Amino acid sequence: MPIPCTVTPIWPATLQLGEGTLWHAASSRFFFVDIRGQAVHSWSPDTDIRQSWQMPEMVGWLVPCADGQDFIAGFQSGFVRLTLEPELKIERLGSPHPDQLGLRLNDAKADAGGRIWAGSMHHENPQQPLGQLACLHPDGRIEVVEKNIHIANGPAVSPDGSVMLHTDSLLRSIYCYRLSADGQLHNKNLWKTFAPEDGEPDGMTFDAEGHVWVAFWGGSCLRRFNLAGEELQRIHLPASQITNVAFGGENLDLMLVTSARVGLSEEQLAQQPLAGSAFVLRTGVRGVVPGVWGPSA
């Protein structure tokens, strides 16, 4: 079920583990990270200006703060408040896993209530179910809501705020929760499990129509599903390890997609010269404004 679209590389094939796609409306820029490269990158679709900031440790994602100034970032060691401009500043906020060495925050999204839902994984031993799903509340409180996760990915919150999807990539499974207005998760169920030949579901995002786009690590594609789990569309991409996706641009009609080089052999890299690139897609589909963290959200 292909969908007509344009695919344009906007970042060279240097990302070891591209992730954390985000549209930042306040600065009209896309942001994304290289987890293994310990870097935050930005790209402006209006000016084509690219910027990079080196971090002191692995960083998995950014979420804007409600005051419009800073970001909350998921470092290996935990949550931080991150200032990028005019100079780099880092304020550590705490960790959902302070006594568990080897865990790192991996992926996250904010909901309409100003909460961040963030998953973790064991960096060296992802085969073990040591990861968690945690919530950073607007008041700074950290709450662990799920344990025994291998590789926590997603999550994604539906446009109406009532549904959250969350992935355990190693199990190739996506789970569905009901999300109440007070930030409680209910009625967890297995939403969809994929076959080995599909690859592993990774990052995901909802569009304005309430459908979810899922990046597939090892699957060379994005796939679009309705909440009944039916596949609606598929976009093939020139890299096998597709990691994350976000809508952005002035009209929220651009899609930023990241990929990874890590783990690919020299032969595979020769066959995939764009592995480790970030791509911009135009599909005619629009997204929703991403959530922010903080009490005024």
Explain this structure to me?
By secondary structure, this protein is mainly β. It has one domain: 6 Propeller (Neuraminidase). Helix content is 2%, strand content 51%. Strand 19 and strand 20 form a beta hairpin. The chain is globular, with a radius of gyration of 17 Å. The termini are far apart. The relative contact order is 0.18.
Characterize this entry briefly.
This protein is mainly beta. It contains one helix and 24 strands.
Task: Specify the CATH class.
Answer: Mainly Beta
Using the coordinates shown, work out and report the CATH topology.
Neuraminidase
* Count of alpha/pi helices: 1
Q: How would you classify the helix and strand content by structural class?
A: mainly beta
Strand content: over 45%
| Tally of separate domains | 1
Strands of the biggest beta sheet: in what spatial order? Answer: 1-24-23-22
In helices, the fraction of residues equals under 10%
Total count of strands: 24
By CATH, the architecture is named 6 Propeller
Q: Could you say which overall geometry the principal axes of the C-alpha atoms support?
A: globular
Mean pLDDT equals 96
CATH superfamily: TolB, C-terminal domain
Low-confidence stretches: none
**What is the chain-wise order of helices and strands?**
EEEEEEEEEEEEEEEEEEEEEEEHE
Q: Rg, please?
A: 17 Å
Largest sheet descriptor: 4 strands, antiparallel
- Termini gap: 38 Å
List keywords for this structure.
1 helix, mainly beta
How do the strands and helices of this protein lay out in sequence?
Blueprint: E1 6-11, E2 18-24, E3 29-34, E4 39-43, E5 50-54, E6 59-64, E7 71-75, E8 78-83, E9 89-94, E10 103-110, E11 116-122, E12 131-136, E13 142-149, E14 152-157, E15 163-168, E16 173-179, E17 185-193, E18 200-206, E19 212-217, E20 221-225, E21 231-236, E22 242-248, E23 254-259, H1 266-271, E24 278-282
Antiparallel strand pairs: 1-24, 2-3, 3-4, 4-5, 6-7, 7-8, 8-9, 10-11, 11-12, 12-13, 14-15, 15-16, 16-17, 18-19, 19-20, 20-21, 22-23, 23-24
